[in-house]
Amino acid sequence: MKLRNLLGGAVLGVGGLAALNTGLRYEGELESPLDGDDGVFRWRGMDVAYTEAGDLDDPDLLLLHGINAAGSSGEWRAVFDDLADEYHVVAPDFPGYGRSDRPPLRYSAALYEDFVHDFLAEFDEPAVVASSLSAAYAAAAVDGGDAAGGVRISGFVGVCPTATAGPSPAKGWLRE
Questions:
Q1: What is the pLDDT of residues 24-49, one digit of tens each?
Q2: 8 in a domain, yes or no?
Q3: Angle at 81 between CA 79 and CA 87, to 5 degrees
Q4: Cβ proximity of 130 and 138 under 8 Å
Q5: Which of 94, 101, 96, 149 is nearest to 119 (CA)?
Q6: Residue 72: which domain range?
Q7: Digit-coded pLDDT (tens) for 123-139
Q8: Second label for 78, Cα 20 to 30 Å away, from 18, 31, 42, 91?
């Protein structure tokens, strides 16, 4: 009798885990967390989602979300609509975040610096507001202006900025 109960519990447990795993693997389309027009920036073979709002004739303002487990353009939902009253506001979801593609590749600081550079280059001297680690990526993308391969911007605000540099010298136990 105990063996039958144990076996029945195991079958139910495995079935429950299988159902949970199926639910976690859901790959449906996410809704945009921001009000505005959704678009796609095709970059290195992947679709990078963005939302824009405001008058196209107003100055461009790019909002770059932080890099964390829950990062997405939705980080700007409290200010996006208000900023769109005076700016042409654009908020991308970084590759691997939010509604953007998540291909199996190495997501590194260099990759995100290149993405920010290429995305900013689509605009004519935008202002940039970047939070957390994306502030470091934006700083690297504009470093030296266009004379040094950087992009020109009209202004920059870092919200709780962090750097990409780790301990110096790198610790042997720290893996990249």
A1: 555 667 889 999 999 999 999 999 99
A2: no
A3: 95
A4: yes
A5: 94
A6: 37-159
A7: 999 999 999 999 999 99
A8: 42
**The total number of residues written for the chain in this structure:** 176
What sign results for the dihedral spanned by CA atoms 117, 123, 124, 125? negative
Q: Read off the DSSP letter of residue 28.
A: P
Q: Copy the structure tokens of residue 118.
A: 């290429």
> Is the pTM above the cut of 0.70?
yes
Q: 171 lies in a domain?
A: no
Domains in the chain, number: 1
For residues 158 and 135, give the distance between their C-alpha atoms in angstroms, rounded to a whole number.
5
Give the 3-state secondary structure of residue 48: strand
13 belongs to a structural domain = no
C-alpha 143/C-alpha 116 separation (Å) is: 12
Angle, in degrees to the nearest 10, between helices 109-120 and 133-142 = 60
What separation in angstroms does the CA of 129 have from each of 30, 50, 82, 174? 24, 15, 14, 31
Beta-carbon contacts of 134 under 8 Å, excluding residues fewer than 6 positions away, are 64, 65, 66, 67, 94, 112, 116
CATH of the domain at 107: 3.40.50.1820
Q: Is the dihedral of CA 133, 136, 139, 143 positive or negative?
A: negative
Q: Which uninterrupted H or E stretch holds 46?
A: strand 46-53
